[in-house]
Amino acid sequence: MDMSVVLPEECISKTISFTCARDACRFSAVSPVFKSAADSDAVWEKFMPSDHREIISCSASPSLLTTNLSKKDLYLHLCHNPIIINDGTMSFSIEKESGKKCFMVGARGLSIIWGDTSSYWNWPSLPESRFSEVAELNYVWWFDVKGKIDTKILSPKTTYAAYLVFKLAESTYGFRTRPVKLGVYLEGIDNGERCNVYLDPPRNTPTLSQNRGDGWMEIEMGEFFNENGDEGTLICSLFDFDGMSTKRGIIIEGIELRPKNGK
Description:
The protein is of the alpha+beta class. 20% of the residues lie in helices and 34% in strands. It has eight helices and 14 strands. It has helices at 3-6, 9-16, 21-27, 32-38, 41-47, 52-56, 62-66, 71-80; strands at 83-85, 90-94, 101-106, 111-112, 121-122, 135-137, 142-150, 158-173, 180-186, 195-197, 210-211, 217-226, 233-241, 248-259. Helix 2 packs across helix 4. The relative contact order is 0.16. The model has no long low-confidence stretch (mean pLDDT 88).
């Protein structure tokens, strides 16, 4: 039985809206009627985060996104083109398969010990960064960087992984001889669990960082299951202190939180 003949387009759209973005794209290839139904704003509105309008309103040019694009085009745009929000300190995008929210806290949105002291940290602009500034380490003994994000803005019922987005300058020193401690925990509920990771691995040590393909590397800091979004403030921490040696040369774009394996 050909449903495109029996059912009106509105019913087909309603049915497709209970699937996912990938399935909607597949349905659009079935027939012209299915394509019209699968590409409709009613379908793609269902795939978008419910608060996407509020988030987009915090960007520099919200009208360009909400006025000029269909819901399908907006969805696909946000999958591949993170928008800058919160006065340039954070970016927002969506995970292509699930439509769940992804955020990156930019370097200027992080808590960096001595970050405002020019002898310790520089704040250059790099063309490969989505943000206007990144943090470049001159030298410190006490390396302490934290990112904070309210769990209420994350997608509920979702396991998130936090990633440090960084690169190493040619002058990098100290990250090969000592690991840094990485941890993800709720503010006020720190169980002290940390993993020790070399950001510049010594010879014969596995490399845990991955090339993102956008000019940056990333390394997983930990994960967190966001139940209902009312858990509080999530802390993503990097730390190392060695009073006998310094560190230098890391360039930090930010800390990104995105659904782990699309879940």
